[in-house]
Design goal:
ten-stranded parallel sheet
Amino acid sequence: MKYRQVCGMLLALWSASVSAETFVVTKVTDDDGPCTIDDCALREAVLAANAFPGADVIEVPGGTYQLSLVGPVPENICMTGDVDITDDLEIRGDPFADVTIIGDGTDRVFDLLGSSVVELSHLVITGGFSPDGGGGIRVSGSGFAASGFTLRDSAVIGNATNGDGGGIRIGAVPTATIERCLVEGNTSEQRGGGIFVSLSTPFRFTDVINSTITNNTAFVGGGIYLFGTAFHSITNSTIADNEADVLFSDGFVGDITNRLTLENTLFVNNECGYIAAIPMSNGHNIEGPTATCFVPGDGDQMGVADILLGPLAANGGPTRTYALLPGSPAIDAGLDSDCPATDQRGVARPLDGDFDSVAQCDIGAFEAGSITASEIPTVGGLGLLIFASLLATAGLFRRRLRHRRRLE
């Protein structure tokens, strides 16, 4: 009996020691063979992580990773098409180099399946297409309930879908966090050009923090479409220049009885709409030039003619941002009590942006102040060229969708 107990304990210790693995990607080609120390593609690393129980880690060095193994759609075993994740996993891109993952044009880029906790960081996710939602990333696809999703310091750019969620589609997940990210130039033929969230169970949460959602297009809900009865918050983010065919839905749409709170957030050149629910303002938001996105509260500014934003540019950090220009009403106008520790670029908050010797949190994803772009790691020239090419492709896709609607 004692022998069996000792063997059981040893087996348990061995299982724990091998239940979590770290895989390092060593090549940019798209292969589906075994992942070895000196020969491991991204897809091979995910296949290996799916096979190992526990919270595995994949480290991805700088490079452009083109998914090229085209196969039947849907296919949920990660052998072809998108990268299917079925177990707890963290994928870490190199924070000091471009890590760009490009879809094959017939499938999305990432599909998060099963009851798993997944975190993606320091990645550019682009070139994905899906006929049924989540052009870049789908969370809880195929009816599975995932247990957590986090996207940090990443860009979701130039993806498209005939369904909901051109960039990201989030389903039945208890918690989802999008932090210090750029969601740009994605297209949905239905709801949510940038992000679509469908959480029909109360006490589930989605948080968008220090992120920029811009230039996305959809039939309804150009930037974000929130559906269901869950709780959502948008904090210190910038929602700008999104477009939708349905009036009053460029920026975002709140559908049914979701609970949305807004704080320290900019809404620029996009109107909003709601079905049965009007968002709660926690204060210190700015909208301009329209006034449709929230009921004003403490410190809110509505209908501002010019918020004084610079162009979307590499202002430092892993993703592009809209800088606050001198004199912007967003500078030193945020609520300090819930101010995140950094802005989208990783710059510490708060800074004294108006030089009155008092540091106060800015409104939006960018913190103005004495930090310069040269002091923060930024996306390189190759990444910007890829962005420009894929955004042009996304523009052609948007025009094709609009032409199709006119014909119908």
